[in-house]
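At this stage, I put together a protein sequence along with its fold in token form, as given directly below:
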Amino acid sequence: MKNVGFVVTASCDLPASMLENYKVTVLPVEVSDSSGVKLVNRSILELSHFYTEQQPFYCEKIGISRQNFIDVVCNKLIYEFDHLIIIAPDESFSDSLHIIRESLFEFHHEIKQRREKASIYTPFKVRVVESKQVLTGYGVSLYEALRLRHEKAQSADQVKQHLDEFKTNIKTFMLPGKKHPELVRAPFRLSWLELKKLKISGKHPVLYFHPEEVTIGRMVDIKDRHHDYFDFLFEQLSHTKLTNHIVNISYAGSLSQLRILQGFDNFHQEVKDRGGKLVHSMMSQTAAFNLGKGAVSVSFACEPKRTIY
């Protein structure tokens, strides 16, 4: 493969250490609410501070900063790589994809001129992949792209073509935190009445996200929600075949808290028994704003039409 760089936004839910090891460029995400605008990143220090000190707030808008994208990609990465693969969250959740495409269109001709001025004459390509994942799960697509780069000498076009097929087989199951008022917003769109009924019934939804829609995969008892959630995932894995070995789990809190959740150990063992690798990460702030602290999300890619209810 040619000199290929990978770019994601801070909502990508692979561990920060893995992103650093593979030299993946992470674009900060700009979030805004009634108090103003702030940039959030994916550093361990920032996430740890967020989960121990800060409270999630209502986000009116989520997306990368256009100026930051230009500074990082058009003013820096075009000189370091011949090809760039940019993986972005679904546009129903974030403005990032729109900003990326708009900026690349504007700078398309200028990029070639800038590289030639720097005496770089090799062909340059940028390929943008919409992950079709919203709050969590798009780390699975990035992991697959990194695997291809490591195992096979493929072009950026071949990687994009593979990912466009691969992403349709990613399944994401989210267990919101106890407080999840943002589920009334897209892409979930649970009504206020539905949330009220859940609270009264003592039930908690496990949200199943797949391309184009979000549904409730199962209702679990709120008191035993972690045990029932991992039990549900155990059932899903037992009736499917992983198409790559990664199972990505992200938690809206410290990873030490994740590991002591009821049912976690059994689920971890099931992943290993099926030849998989459980990759842990702290959930991005943008996901926690919507799902609430204490939320858990698990994503994996499997053969089509094998997920059951």
Remarks:
- The domain at 4-167 is CATH 3.40.50.10170 (Rossmann fold).
- The CA atoms of residues 63 and 95 lie 5 Å apart.
